[in-house]
């Protein structure tokens, strides 16, 4: 949630942020009205509750008819207090529900528009010219089958469409990427983590994934638990209901976990191979810091993502995601997109998001110390280090040779050797 004081003090700023996202501004007016009603209900409750307390002091001293009148008024007030308390609770719940539906305030620095209105910030590396090399590139699925690395037919047989098995060198490649990513993150000062992939409703809602992204979430109703679509969820909730010392920040975590997504609304889209699937593994960077340090930390996360792609020797570009494509929690997001030869375009392999105080206010994560008096909400940021399936796709397609073998980046040589060769 955003700071309610911004809504009261500068509602036009909230309206402008909604407009940058391409969203209607009526929600802001509803929130202002709900906030006024909530505060009025508090005043009304305190008034009748105060009178009730005063009568409680007067009754023991009163006698005769005066006492009877006071007792009669006490009965009236008892019901009024109950009604006022119920009205206050209802008004508070309405305000909170509306506040949770309001996205974080999109940064004015983010490009305005929808999914296709991003701005390319940087392009790194040059895609190979396969025509000049004398052969037509194979896509990742054909390469994966030749290498004995990917089995989507049995994945579909066992689990349904958009599931797969990584086999042989495919499984080894994921394990090598995991080991390399976690080692790199540790070198950069991240604490390696393996979080739970099942979380409760508060964790899921607290990170904003039961809002716009709710249709993509797998829910186990019998258990009241949710399968995470990213380890951002358990890592954001890791310090929920805690006060962090400012001197301990930033706290940086690198979490490996499976990720589960329904891919709602993507019917018929990217169905071949393992590009868009219902389950994949990922190493995610997650950071707690202070609000004044959040923008700088966002740039650092992006820098680590770029260093990772450089280590994998992949051609990629960095885009500044448009405000209408940010999701509920982020004020700004940068995506790194690797070149996929057989698609002839760059595709997202990682993202870095600055969520400022949006998640910490929902999860009650505060900071004590530093320049601010008392406690203040923490800032949270997240960034993909390695999404396994798409990274495997990029490595296979960009490293392929005419005979179906795949030349690996030097960073993986100690773990897998220089070349993956087709099965005989």
* Tertiary shape: elongated
Strand arrangement, largest sheet? 1-11-12-13-16-10-9-4
Radius of gyration: 27 Å
How would you classify the quaternary structure?
A: single chain
Largest sheet: 8 strands, mixed
Total strands: 18
How many helices in DSSP terms?
A: 14
Which structural class matches the secondary elements?
alpha+beta
Strand content: 15-25%
**Fraction of helical residues:** 40-55%
Intertermini distance: 57 Å
The mean pLDDT is: 93
Residue windows where pLDDT falls under 50 for at least 5 positions: none
Question: What's this, in brief?
Answer:
The protein is of the alpha+beta class. The protein has helices spanning about 5-10, 10-20, 25-60, 65-100, 130-135, 140-145, 150-160, 170-185, 200-205, 230-235, 295-310, 360-365, 390-400, 415, and strands at about 120-125, 150, 165, 190-195, 200, 220, 225, 240-245, 250-260, 280-290, 315-320, 330-340, 345-355, 365-370, 375, 380-385, 405, 420.
Polypeptide structure, described:
Strand 14 and strand 15 (375-377) form a beta hairpin. Helix 3 (26-58) runs antiparallel to helix 4 (64-101) and helix 6 (140-147) crosses helix 13. The chain has an 8-stranded mixed beta sheet. The protein is elongated. The protein has helices at residues 4-9, 11-20, 26-58, 64-101, 130-133, 140-147, 152-159, 169-187, 201-206, 232-237, 294-311, 358-363, 388-399, 413-416; strands spanning 119-124, 150-151, 165-166, 191-193, 198-200, 218-220, 225-227, 242-245, 251-260, 279-289, 316-320, 332-340, 345-354, 365-368, 375-377, 379-387, 406-407, 419-420. The longest helix has 38 residues, at 64-101. The chain is an alpha+beta fold. The protein has 14 helices and 18 strands.
């Amino acid at each position: 949630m955003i700071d309610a004081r911004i809504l009261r003090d500068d509602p036009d700023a909230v309206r402008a942020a909604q407009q940058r996202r391409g969203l209607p501004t009526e929600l802001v007016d509803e929130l202002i009205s709900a906030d006024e009603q909530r505060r009025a209900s508090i005043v009304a409750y305190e008034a009748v509750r105060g009178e009730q307390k005063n009568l409680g002091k007067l009754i023991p001293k009163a006698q005769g008819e005066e006492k009877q009148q006071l007792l009669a008024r006490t009965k009236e007030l008892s019901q009024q207090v109950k009604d006022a308390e119920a009205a206050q609770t209802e008004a508070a719940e309405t305000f909170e529900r509306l506040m949770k539906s309001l996205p974080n305030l999109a940064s004015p620095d983010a490009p305005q528009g929808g999914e296709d209105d991003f701005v390319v910030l940087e392009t790194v590396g040059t895609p190979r010219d396969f025509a000049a090399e004398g052969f037509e590139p194979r896509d990742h699925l054909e390469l994966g089958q030749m290498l004995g690395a990917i089995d989507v037919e049995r994945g579909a047989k066992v689990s349904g469409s958009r599931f797969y098995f990584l086999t042989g060198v495919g499984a080894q490649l994921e394990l090598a990427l995991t080991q390399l990513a976690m080692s790199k993150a540790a070198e950069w000062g991240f604490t390696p983590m393996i979080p739970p992939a099942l979380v409760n409703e508060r964790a899921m809602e607290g990170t904003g994934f039961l809002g716009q992204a709710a249709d993509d979430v797998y829910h186990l109703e019998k258990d009241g638990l949710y399968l995470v679509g990213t380890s951002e969820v358990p890592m954001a909730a890791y310090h929920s209901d805690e006060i962090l010392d400012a001197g301990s920040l930033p706290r940086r975590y690198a979490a490996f976990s499976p990720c589960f997504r329904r891919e709602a609304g993507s019917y018929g889209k990217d169905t071949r191979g393992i590009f868009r699937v219902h389950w994949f593994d990922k190493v995610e960077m997650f950071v707690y810091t202070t609000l004044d340090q959040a923008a700088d930390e966002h740039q650092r996360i992006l820098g680590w993502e770029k260093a990772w792609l450089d280590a994998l020797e992949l051609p990629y570009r960095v885009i500044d995601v448009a405000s209408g494509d940010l999701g509920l929690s982020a004020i700004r997001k940068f995506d790194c997109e690797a070149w996929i030869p057989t698609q002839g375009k760059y595709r997202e392999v990682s993202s870095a998001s600055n969520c400022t105080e949006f998640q910490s206010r929902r999860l009650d994560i505060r900071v004590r110390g530093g320049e601010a008096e008392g406690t203040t909400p923490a800032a949270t940021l997240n960034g993909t280090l390695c999404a396994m399936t798409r990274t495997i796709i990029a490595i296979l397609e960009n490293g392929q040779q005419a005979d179906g073998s795949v030349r690996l980046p030097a960073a993986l040589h100690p773990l897998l050797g220089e070349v993956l060769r087709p099965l005989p």
